[in-house]
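Colleagues,

For the teaching module next term, I've prepared a clean inverse folding example: a structure given as tokens, and then the sequence designed for it. I'd like students to try predicting residues themselves before seeing the answer, so please don't circulate the second half yet.
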């Protein structure tokens, strides 16, 4: 009888305990894979999140809030700044490109963003060749992100009306005449889809883009009132240029200029603290999985002491007994590990749309991550450590003494 046949018979004989062991290992591996996918999405999102716009200018307030609203389309803007500031920024010789952004409305929960068309070529280059249609050119034209088009089933030529606020139902209409008039403007202003963006793998996939002046038209801005924008995105000519721009416009009244990379790094640090808490739970899962393997094999040794003694009497070596128990632990671990890897990636794949809707993070499942090698190696080492005790106990069985007792 070969070791493999013996392993299979032993595992099959104790189906319930074997399945529980496999399940504990699989759950642990799946949680770790999901954590790895989450961390990768955060890193990729931070890397691609703001493109070449190293400086962001907006209203006074939280720097992280400004960065999240501008580049990830999350949360509320910090306020508005004068539109006239845009021309000053563009006239600065340290600035290579600058684009203003207006926001504050949504369609079915997806943000409507006013942005100058040049933004796409500056940020994405040739990647913005439309999946279909063309870029917007006049008031009311919109270009929708790939995720929005898929989620809402939008096509070229479709029309819709937006709503005030950054999420669906964010602001109710009360009896105030001014509020009612503003809401009427929203419902009477129609957008037309003229283009659909290709997948850009950034939060722009979940936004609807239109001309910068949409906000002034929708909110019926008084022609005599100075125009305002939400944010100005700045691509400096150099790192020294970025410092000069930040210093110059950070001193303007009620205006802040931030280093985008620093603000995004602060967000990533906050997310990392959350993932560290999840890591603590994962360590507990690893310990429980190791205990499950240990208890399973200890029970197996107690059950099969006479079987082990009989194998020794018919001539099987102690090494054979050792490897049969060691192999059983590794087999159960390996099956659970492979199942857990598959479940982790499947879980990431199934939840990718919800996570992208919620946080704007792209989960890239079914791609082998570098951390998975550590997961495989570490899990097998834990399995070996858990099987050493029971294997040694079986190795020391004296067949004649056992049968005499």
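(Answer key — instructors only)
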């Amino acid at each position: 009888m070969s070791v493999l046949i013996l392993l299979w018979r032993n595992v099959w004989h104790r189906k319930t305990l074997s399945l529980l062991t496999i399940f504990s290992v699989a759950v642990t591996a799946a949680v770790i894979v999901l954590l790895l996918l989450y961390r990768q999405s955060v890193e990729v999102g931070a890397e691609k999140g703001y493109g070449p716009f190293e400086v962001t200018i907006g209203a006074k307030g939280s720097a992280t809030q400004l960065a999240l609203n501008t580049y990830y389309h999350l949360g509320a803007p910090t306020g508005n700044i004068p539109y006239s500031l845009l021309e000053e920024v563009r006239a600065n010789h340290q600035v290579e490109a600058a684009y203003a952004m207006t926001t504050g409305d949504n369609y079915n929960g997806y943000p409507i963003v006013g942005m100058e068309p040049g933004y796409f070529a500056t940020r994405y280059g040739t990647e913005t060749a439309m999946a279909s249609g063309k870029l917007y050119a006049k008031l009311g034209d919109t270009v929708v992100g790939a995720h929005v088009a898929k989620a809402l089933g939008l096509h070229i030529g479709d029309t819709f009306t937006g709503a005030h606020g950054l999420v669906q139902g964010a602001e109710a209409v009360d009896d105030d005449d001014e509020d009612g008039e503003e809401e009427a403007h929203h419902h009477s202003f129609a957008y037309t889809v003229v283009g659909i963006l290709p997948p850009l793998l950034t939060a722009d996939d979940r936004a609807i883009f239109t001309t910068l002046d949409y906000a002034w038209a929708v909110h019926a801005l008084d022609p005599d009132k100075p125009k305002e924008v939400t944010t100005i995105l700045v691509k400096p000519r150099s790192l020294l240029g970025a410092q000069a721009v930040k210093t110059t416009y950070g001193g303007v009244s009620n205006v802040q200029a931030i280093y985008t990379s620093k603000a995004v790094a602060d967000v990533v640090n906050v997310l990392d603290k959350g993932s560290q808490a999840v890591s603590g739970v994962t360590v507990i899962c690893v310990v429980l999985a190791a205990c499950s393997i240990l208890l399973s094999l200890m029970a197996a040794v107690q059950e099969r002491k006479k079987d082990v003694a009989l194998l020794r009497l018919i001539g099987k070596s102690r090494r054979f007994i050792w490897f049969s128990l060691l192999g059983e632990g590794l087999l159960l671990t390996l099956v659970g590990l492979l199942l857990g890897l598959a479940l982790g990636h499947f879980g990431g794949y199934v939840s990718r749309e919800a996570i992208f809707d919620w946080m704007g993070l792209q989960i890239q499942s079914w791609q082998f991550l570098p951390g998975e090698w550590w997961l495989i190696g570490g899990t097998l080492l834990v399995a070996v450590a858990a099987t050493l005790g029971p294997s040694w106990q079986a190795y020391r069985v004296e067949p004649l003494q056992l049968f005499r007792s």
